[in-house]
Design a protein that fits this description.
mainly alpha, 11 helices, 206 residues
Length: 206
């Protein structure tokens, strides 16, 4: 494919390109990422293979666009959490973000089932990598700024710390599905050196 043709290739926001991504998303969930073909996608959206190739070079490129589409859905849920959390309520914010991570990445959904298989392991890892990158950048631009107004941000390399933390939690929860939320909240707070509310010690009797 020449550079000239690549420069003319439609980008995100083009209505027909977006229709191809949505059709590919539907077919991927129905048949699995590894089993779909360009013909499947073209048939679903109602276009010829040649027109498909005007928008995407191959199946891998449209699959990448589908993963980005799911990442965008996930970031929207993160934005909803951020916009509705109570400023200064650290415990509530920790509980909320753990829920977002569980529901968005690990809960039993057709997307997770489609990716979380041996043949799609590399795609699942790519999805988690993109989620970690977008989440870390979002936290740095929003939540960290809010937290810094009332507390010291006692970590260096903020983006990198968030990225590694998110990747670590994703990997841990993927293999320890029953991990208690309290453990995850503690890990986040301890890694980020967050100032949490002091929990009262139980009163000794007898």
């Amino acid at each position: 494919m020449s550079d000239t043709l690549d420069e003319k290739r439609p980008t995100r926001g083009d209505a027909r390109r977006d229709a191809i991504v949505q059709a590919a998303r539907k077919v991927c969930l129905e048949k699995g990422f590894s089993k779909i073909t360009v013909s499947d996608i073209a048939s679903e959206v109602g276009m010829t293979r040649s027109l498909f190739y005007h928008y995407f070079r191959n199946k891998q490129e449209v699959t990448s666009a589908v993963i980005d589409d799911f990442v965008n859905d996930y970031i929207e849920s993160l934005q909803f959490w951020n916009e509705h959390r109570t400023p200064g309520d650290i415990e509530g914010s920790l509980a909320g973000v753990v829920t977002v991570m569980r529901v968005g990445v690990f809960e039993h959904s057709s997307f997770r089932r489609a990716l979380d298989t041996h043949e799609n392991a590399s795609l699942y890892l790519e999805f988690i990598n993109r989620v970690a990158d977008r989440m870390a950048a979002y936290f740095v631009e929003t939540t960290v700024q809010d937290y810094a107004q009332n507390h010291p941000v006692d970590i260096d390399h903020v983006y990198e710390t968030f990225y590694i933390l998110i990747m670590g939690i994703c990997g841990y929860v993927r293999t320890h599905r029953d991990a208690p939320d309290e453990v995850l909240r503690d890990i986040i707070a301890q890694t980020l050196h967050m100032e949490r509310e002091t929990k009262p010690k139980p009163v000794q009797t007898g």
